[in-house]
Amino acid sequence: MQEYDVTLKLLLQGSAKLTVRELTGTAVEKWLDVELPKVQNPRADLLGETAGGGLVHLELQSRNEATMPLRMAEYCLGVFRLFGQFPRQVLLYVGEAPLRMDSELRGPDVSFRYRLVDLRSLDGDRLLESAEVGDNVIASRDCGTIEKRSAGL
Question: What is the pLDDT of residue 142?
């Protein structure tokens, strides 16, 4: 395929202007010579397998970051490369500042999104009723229960 790659690239960058317009819907004024180096070792916080064989990616975040949707998309594609399936993704925000991050990445013909949950939005009372200690600890940490109790509800 590489021998065709070089020839097709040369044609598309040069004299195949109508083909490019048919493919992209526009004329290209200038072709950019870009390499996309990748020197990173991203690590998803938690990746689990469900009883049904699906994958769940749980990412924990304590600060608002404008680039989070891009990071989540990269995690998603990385998991897909390794396991051959897309994970269900949830970002759990545990920061003190109000949640201001987006949960989607959009562009022309591209759409990606994940579930974004503020820890404070969880039902603290329900978690406190759980027989699991971990649920109880999380409920007393930041969930809506704290605000209810301090307000005397």
Answer: 63
